[in-house]
Amino acid sequence: MPLLIRYNSGLNIADNGLALSALMDEIVSSWPVPVEDVSFVGHSMGGLVAITALSAATDAGHSWARLARHIVTIGSPHLGAPLEKGVHLVSTGLDQAPEGRPISVFLEQRSAGIKSLRTGGDDGAADPSHQVEFHFVAGAITKESDSFIGKILGDLIVPVASATGRSRTRVLEATDVRVLGGRNHRELLHDPEVHQDVLGWLTGRDVSKRWPYAALR
Q1: For residues 207 and 16, which has the higher predicted lDDT (pLDDT)?
Q2: Which pLDDT tens digit goes with each residue over 16-54?
Q3: Is the dihedral of CA 64, 135, 174, 125 positive or negative?
Q4: C-alpha distances in angstroms, 137 versus 28, 68, 156, 187, 196?
Q5: How far apart are the first and last CA of the chain?
Q6: What is the pLDDT of residue 146?
Q7: pLDDT value for 137
Q8: CA distance 28 to 6
Q9: Domain map of the chain by residue range?
């Protein structure tokens, strides 16, 4: 049964992860029938919050962590968001000069949640020793998803390398990695192909040809 969970994007990812872990512990323990498995689907920061929640639940010994089976992240900046990194550098530079400090102070009004996107979430949970299967979906604004420009620009918010957890210096383990061309960050959330992939991953069935998009709504 799907549950929609809201979180405060003004809080940093770690705090949201802790809150989600505690909420899941309460939900699972009070569910009217025994819960057999738990899966998460998160877009953008939501994917990082889900992974961080699993890590927090594992550390705290919450029973629901043993029920986790799938985490799907859609356009999530596992390796950080360049836009936030850029704003941080600009703000830090402006703070060095008296004339620039007022602008730096203004830029630093960003929420803790946005600032935490500079480094991404706690992806220590994405470890092959866990029973959880991780599925990463990335978007590229160019039609060809493997083009050089497409990889750099990504979905205009998150580069392909960050959304797939793969760079020259760091690779996150994942069961499936999908890169879709011709999509921006927001379009990924409502994309029919993404919905098909998610349904297939969560059910273990090949839905690429047998399930029309209308059946998913």
Answers
A1: 16
A2: 999 999 999 999 999 999 999 999 999 998 999 999 999
A3: negative
A4: 27, 19, 14, 12, 12
A5: 14
A6: 86
A7: 96
A8: 17
A9: 13-216
Report long-range pairs for 146-155 (Cβ below 8 Å, ≥24 apart). 146/179, 146/181, 147/181, 150/181, 155/75, 155/183, 155/184, 155/185, 155/187, 155/188
Assigned token pair, 143: 């039609």
Per-residue pLDDT, averaged over 164-175, amounts to 85
Cα 43 from Cα 155, distance rounded (Å): 13
Q: Assign domain 13-216 one CATH number from 3.30.70, 1.10.150, 3.40.50, 1.10.3290.
A: 3.40.50
- Count of all residues that appear for the chain in the document: 217
How far apart CA 137 and CA 102 sit, in angstroms, is 39
Distance CA 28, CA 36 (A): 10
Q: How confident is the model at residue 117 (pLDDT cuts 50, 70, 90)?
A: very low
